[in-house]
Write a structure and sequence with these properties.
about 220 residues; alpha+beta; 2 domains; 6 helices; 4 strands
């Protein structure tokens, strides 16, 4: 089977398919020349990522912008060394001989060399967190302009909160438009969607007027 893994790094802006330390997936040896970074991935490959299951997902039940003691469960590791750390996936045995593994653990390593020597597949720089699942990585691959899509979800969330504050009546299934947008429409995990919303709220509080002005300017242009 073909299982692809990705490296997201400042030095490699485009993700490259890897198989261990090898950039091809074949029964033979790797060619000496590196492949071109793919610009897009097939929908079947992306959906394979979305369907995989983390054994140790990170959860966040507090708002880190409001609570300085807020931490993920389990706590993140090597946060203090920033992007020197990497997040890697360690897959369990496939349920059937010859099949693809579908369950994995997210493990943070102090550097890429240690991760690769351990047999982990590095997915991004920085510590593993609530958005490090393959389901959330699939969202990034599936949605090239995630910033614009996230803005739409955020607008729905703010409108929903405004209606709550004014006591306006809403249909029950419209109770959380922002979260539904991130989870049901984009496909994020709930924990990842929550931190996106928390980040959006903080951005709105810290730079609401400049952001609105920029949006208006973009609209007029």
């Amino acid at each position: 089977c073909a299982v692809f893994f990705f490296v997201f790094d400042e030095d490699e802006p485009q993700p490259t398919a890897l198989c261990g330390s090898c950039h091809c997936i074949t029964n033979g040896t790797c060619p000496e020349t590196a492949p071109k970074s793919p610009g897009a991935f097939g929908s079947s490959t992306v959906e394979q990522f979305a369907a995989q299951v983390p054994i140790n997902p990170f959860n966040l039940t507090c708002n880190p912008y409001e609570d300085p003691t807020c931490s993920t469960i389990p706590p993140q590791q090597f946060v203090e060394i920033g992007e020197a750390a990497v997040c890697g996936l360690m897959y369990e045995q496939a349920p059937e001989e010859g099949g693809c593994p579908t369950e994995y653990r997210m493990i943070t390593y102090s550097n890429r060399s240690i991760a690769e020597d351990s047999g982990a597949m590095v997915t991004h720089v920085g510590s593993c967190g609530v958005c490090s699942t393959t389901q959330d990585l699939a969202v990034y691959l599936r949605t090239p302009d995630l910033t614009t899509a996230a803005k739409e979800c955020t607008k729905r969330a703010f409108l929903d909160e405004l209606l709550d504050a004014t006591g306006s009546e809403k249909l029950e299934d419209e109770a959380n438009e922002g979260m539904d947008c991130f989870v049901k429409e984009l496909g994020m995990t709930e924990s990842c969607a929550r931190i996106w919303l928390d980040n959006a709220r903080n951005t709105g509080q810290e730079c609401g007027v400049p952001c609105v002005a920029a949006d208006v300017a973009d609209f007029n242009n």
